[in-house]
TrEMBL record:
Signal peptide: none annotated. GO terms for biological process: methylation. Residues 40-129 form the Methyltransferase domain. Pfam families: Methyltransf_25. This is Probable Methylase involved in ubiquinone/menaquinone biosynthesis. Keywords: Methyltransferase, Transferase, Ubiquinone. It comes from Salipiger bermudensis (strain DSM 26914 / JCM 13377 / KCTC 12554 / HTCC2601). GO terms for molecular function: methyltransferase activity.
Length: 238
């Protein structure tokens, strides 16, 4: 993945590269009733925040975090160093082999497309395996301009019913869902704001451009924090 070095400098400093909390991971594991010696993939793991949560919540499991960005994997290595059941590695999340009992993907499936990603992951699931992923959604109705502007970089974004249709098109059934609004986003943009402040002094023009773009994104979210959402979807092949 060819990303500007200034972008990587900012985002590799973050605990996570998008909204989400450990509570979301634990909710999913609880709803799915997962425990024991499982094989788990954190697809698009970034710097490994959810890999850590998965490894601690599933001490008998083997958790493999996978990301295509070397800077993220490098930054995340120290986070899992003391977890014997977790490892991060470079790889293509569109070419998983498995077999995995759980494929977890927080905010990353959009790089593949929901239907396309689920289809690609089907062969990587063990019998009875499940996928848990979060994806941006429109909540419906008359969306404020800030919401439309926020999601402009994702022109294929749909609403919750559209997301369900994408999952069904991939040949999966939805087991449960959870909307991620408010607190997970506040925590994420709070961390982005802190890192922007740390990098702003003496920033090069290229770095200043990246910092400005990230500030604009956070400002759009703050204009409509109750209307910008991810949906966390738990799904199993039909």
């Amino acid at each position: 993945m060819d990303l500007p070095p200034e972008f990587l400098t900012l985002y590799s400093r973050l605990d996570r590269q998008g909204p989400g909390t450990p509570e979301d991971v634990l909710w999913a594991l609880g709803r799915l009733g997962l425990s024991g010696p499982l094989q788990v993939c954190d697809a698009g793991c970034g710097t490994g925040a959810d890999s850590v949560t998965l490894a601690r919540a599933l001490p008998e499991a083997q958790v493999e975090g996978l990301d295509a960005v070397p800077a993220f994997i490098e930054a995340g290595q120290a986070r899992v160093a003391d977890l014997p059941n977790a490892a991060l590695r470079l790889g293509d999340m569109g070419a998983l082999t498995g077999p995995y009992d759980l494929i977890w993907s927080a905010g990353a499936i959009y790089f593949l497309g929901v239907t396309e990603g689920l289809r690609a992951w089907r062969a990587a699931l063990a019998p009875g395996g499940v996928v848990a992923f979060s994806q941006g959604v429109f909540l419906g109705g008359d969306e404020p301009q800030a919401v439309r502007d926020f999601w402009a970089p994702e022109p294929a974004l749909t609403d919750r019913e559209g997301l369900r249709a994408q999952v069904a098109e991939a040949g999966y059934e939805i087991l449960d869902t959870r909307l991620l609004i408010g607190a997970p986003w506040e925590a994420y943009y709070g961390s982005v704001t802190r890192e922007i402040a740390a990098l702003r002094p003496g920033a090069s023009p290229a770095m200043a451009e990246v910092l400005d773009a990230s500030e604009r994104e956070g400002a759009l979210w703050r204009q409509a924090p109750d209307r910008i959402a991810y949906e966390l979807v738990l799904a199993r092949p039909d």
